[in-house]
Amino acid sequence: MSKFEEKTNHTEIIYKGKIIQLQVDTVTLPDGQTSKRELIKHPGAVAIIALTDEGKIVFVEQYRKALEKSILEIPAGKLESGEKPEVTALRELEEETGYTTDRLNLITSFYTSPGFADELVHLYYTDQLKPLKEAASLDEDEFVEMQELTLEEAEQLASMHRIHDAKTAYALLYLSLKGNAK
């Protein structure tokens, strides 16, 4: 056991939904005391940095109920059970943007909120977009609108909180450091 590890003594599942599971774990702390941890279990997700031939970044705008507002985000979606992240990434790119690609490069994977959730996001990059011959269908409860923006336009919208989520902020930082987006 590492010096910071917490040993789980009991898990109580509070809620099990389509996307998340909420549980409360009773744990033994490194000093021998016990405590409770409220945790969200998530199957993981993907996000895609997609650049057009003109070097514009592909975004989708959608309403986020948790925020009670619409924001612009890079295309993304939840992993389905047993699905490989690159398969999810291609499916989400096609469904949300009308583009496909033969080349997705994994940039990195990161935890979104490790203090209470185990969601791991796999971030992909492509600059080899091709329009789909026939549009893919969105999920029945999903409403999005695609937009293509320059890095400068996206950074301006981020300063106005129209782009306001971690995966998209990470993508903008990546592109800024890479110097690829026009």
- CATH topology-level name of the largest domain: Nucleoside Triphosphate Pyrophosphohydrolase
Strand content: 35-45%
Proper CATH architecture of the largest domain: Alpha-Beta Complex
Order of helices and strands: EEEEEEEHEEEEEHH
Output the CATH class name of the largest domain.
Alpha Beta
Radius of gyration: 19 Å
Q: How does the overall form come out from the CA principal axes?
A: elongated
Count every helix, treating DSSP H or I runs of 4 or more residues as helices. Answer: 3
Tell me, rounded to a whole number, the average pLDDT.
93
Largest sheet: 4 strands, mixed
The strand order across the widest sheet is 7-4-10-9
N- to C-terminal separation?
A: 49 Å
Number of strands: 12
User: In terms of structural class, how would the helical and strand content be classed?
Assistant: alpha+beta
Return the domain count: 2
Indicate the low-confidence ranges by residue numbers: none
Task: State the helicity in percent bands.
Answer: 10-25%
Looking at CATH, the homologous superfamily of the largest domain is: Nucleoside Triphosphate Pyrophosphohydrolase
